[in-house]
Amino acid sequence: MCRHLAYVGPAEPLGELLVTPPHGLYRQSWAPRHQRYGTVNADGFGVGWYAEGDPVPARYRRAGPIWADQSFADLARVVRTGALLAAVRDATLAGADAEAAAAPFAAGTWLFSHNGAVAGWPGSLAPVAATLPPGELLSLEARNDSALVWALVLARLRAGDDEGRAMAETVLEVAAAAPASRLNLLLTNGSTVTATTWGDTLWYRSRPGGGTVVASEPYDDDPHWQEVPDRTLLAASGTDVRLTPLKEPGDTPPADAFVSAKEPRT
After folding, report:
1. Which of 88, 105, 208, 255 has the fewest CB atoms found within 10 Å of its own CB?
2. Where is the stretch described as Disordered (predicted)?
3. What is the pTM of this model?
């Protein structure tokens, strides 16, 4: 049910993060090692990245499998960036939205991806969707669960919530409406990465020389990858990572919510 990855740090070619690693996102499209739901991520892919001096990211998305795109490897070899978000997709339900349904979704400086599925979609989220202004519903980029989850996150961001609060509150709202949902969300603004674990895997690694990678699964066998516990909010910069336990719907958060997870570089 999808694999995704985000990175912030020193500029790197896209391919060094997505294609070259032995178990990179490119390979995860047909041979993921930690995927719990689904086996092949061939229903589309996308990558969003930031050019130096431009806060608004570019995107490259396609409806088919990443390995079938003859141009992507060349693009990934020469394009360099200090921040990206990329995903390969295993669709929850068949649909007609083609590449519009492929992450990353974007608005302003933000890129977003959802690894998982909303249980009982679409009926389970009908009451939640009704809380959004009609114009936002009519402007959804695609008619899938991930696009609606992104609209809920974006509404909170535009209302002034910081990234962590917007992501956490959206997860709790959707989980309360559709309790069996899997809601691993990933967001970047080009400087930081915010993510949630709720029903699927997530790992992070601080890279030698600077930079942080957050991904559904490790792209190599380096022992410095750290698995993020389920029901956790992750906030990362290029130099450190913070982990916050997420409360279940109806619970109160722990007093010592933020836990430092800064990792020594080797």
Report:
1. 255
2. 242-266
3. 0.91
Whether residue 128 lies inside any domain: the answer is: yes
Which of 1, 2, 119, 236 is the catalytic position? Answer: 2
CB distance 2 to 202 below 8 Å: no
Domain count for the chain, please give it.
1
Peptide bond before residue 104 is cis, with ω within 30 degrees of 0: yes
In a domain, 51, yes or no: yes
Q: How far is CA 205 from the centre of its chain?
A: 15
Q: Considering the domain boundaries, does residue 266 fall inside one?
A: no
Residue 250 CA to residue 253 CA, distance in Å, equals 10
Pick from 93, 97, 75: which is nearest to 84 by CA? Answer: 75
Helices (H), ranges, the chain: 14-18, 25-28, 72-78, 126-129, 134-138, 145-158, 163-177
Condensed to tens digits (0 to 9), the pLDDT of residues 91-142 reads 766 555 778 989 999 999 999 999 999 999 999 999 999 999 999 999 999 9
Q: Tell me which residue range forms the domain holding 153.
A: 3-260
In a domain, 78, yes or no: yes
CATH, residue 199: 3.60.20.10
Which residue bears the tokens 């959206």? Answer: 170
| Under 8 Å between Cβ of 116 and 167 | no
Helix ranges, 159-207 (H): 163-177
Any catalytic annotation for residue 133? no
Distance of CA 110 to the CA centre of its chain: 11
Tokens of 56: 């608004």
Q: Are the C-beta atoms of 202 and 113 separated by less than 8 Å? A: no
